[in-house]
Structure formats: structure tokens, C-alpha cells
Specification:
By secondary structure, this protein is of the alpha/beta class. 39% of the residues lie in helices and 18% in strands. Strands 1-2-4-3-5-6-7-8 form an eight-stranded mixed beta sheet, sandwiched between helices. Helix 2 crosses helix 3. The longest helix has 19 residues, at 81-99. The model has no long low-confidence stretch (mean pLDDT 96).
Amino acid sequence: MRAHPAWRAMSGMLDGIMLAKRARGGDLPVLMVHGVGPGTTGWLNFSRLLDLLPARCAVHLVDLAGFGLSGRLPAPPFFDVSFWLRQLDQAVNEIMAVHGRAPLLVGNSVGGGLVLKLAARRPDLRQVLAIGVPWGEPTPALRAFWRAPPDLSTLESMLRPMTASQDATDPTVLNARFQPFRESGYAAYFTEMLADPADCLRRLRLDPGEADGIAAEVTLVHGREDCACLAAPLMDGLVPLLPDANVVLFGACGHSVCSERPAEIAKLMNHLFERAAAL
């Protein structure tokens, strides 16, 4: 067992919106960006992975605006790639002010698309790990997942296809993910955010000019059995844009890579920390 530093709740402001994150101390900074799904947060997205990381890893978990403890955007578009990128840019600057070095960026699903776009804007970022990046047109499974669940039972059925095994979700996690939908107005907010999944993915997609601007070492990870964000469009569309990227494809793995393969992701992150010395 590793003795990890205590977590601290932190917050900041951007355009009058409160932005929350959790952080723990260390000297190897990493910024972890969650995906966009019912009730997701930085903590819930990466919880199975966190205790597997080195104790010296300074983890920063953001809650994107509209999720977790962060405030909601005041007006559409609520799937606001531009605002989220500014939020992450601010977080990177804060981390660099403390550590004097750029963090490893880890993004899951939509978070993976965001960290790639952020790297295109910031040549000072050196390493990006993008997991389960959506590419191509939205699948029926993604459209079904990007809905506001009316009750716990529906949410549980929505989460099952996100893993290759389709196991039931832990009740504690299930309740935590449903909590926002007990709050007034959040179901309508979430529905408006994802009303047009195809447009959401178009705004998230990395274009060739952005890809050419990425100086960071990029590692792409995907589940072979991901039915929400298929691997084939990613291999055919994104991978050719990033000819120097490392690509890892896990068999018997769906969209929830961080919960299905946490030990392998932790090993990969350890490898990237070792690689950082050579970059």
C-alpha cells in the first residue's frame, strides 16, 4: 500500500463561474479531465485508478463546468468546448506556477478530445494521454448514454453497456452519479447540453491544423469493444492525423477503460513519467 498525501478541495473562478477541483501533493504533476456522461466528475471518472499511482504523483482532478461541484454555464451552448479549454488552460497555468513544469495531461472520452485540443494550443505541454476519444458520428449507444436518466434503475441500465462485461455499477457510485439529477433544473440542463450529439462531436473534433500544432508526445488508448465510441473510426480518422502518436488498443475492454483496466493505465502513466525526463 502506498501512503498518499491528503486530498484538498480547491476552487477558482472564470467568467463568474465557480470551478472546482481536488488535488493532492507530490512532485510529478498530472491534470486529469473527465468525460461527459450522466453524473460524471473527476473523482468518479478516475477513482479506481488513483490509488495505483505513485505517492509522489501530484494529481489534479477538475470538474468541468456543468459537472460535479463546478457551477453551470449561464446560457447555451452548455457543451462549450471553448469554455472548457479556457478552464483547463487556467488549471495548467496554476499547476505550472506551483511545480515549475507542465503536467501530464490525462483525458477520458470527451476529456481526451479536450486535452488534445489544449495541446494544440500550448506547445509547452509535453505529454498527453487521451483515453476513449470519441471520433466519427455518434453511435446509437452514445446517443442512449447522453440522456438525462429519470431514475436510478434507468441510469444503471445506461451504464452497463459502457463496459465490455456489462457488469452492474457499484450502488455507491450509482447514487453519486444520480445525485445531480435530484437537483432542480439539472436534468433540463443536461438534456440541452447534449441535445445534438453530432454537433457536440463536431465541435470536439481535432482538425488537421490543430493536429499539426501538437508538440507533445501523444498516447491514445481505446477499448476494442467500446460500443459508444467505436475504435475503427478513431483508427481511420484520428490516428492518421497524429502519425507519431503511440496507440494502445485493449481487448475485452469497453468505453470505461479507467475502471476496466486501471492497473494497465497506472503502469502506462508511470512509463510516461519516466519518459518525461527524456523530453
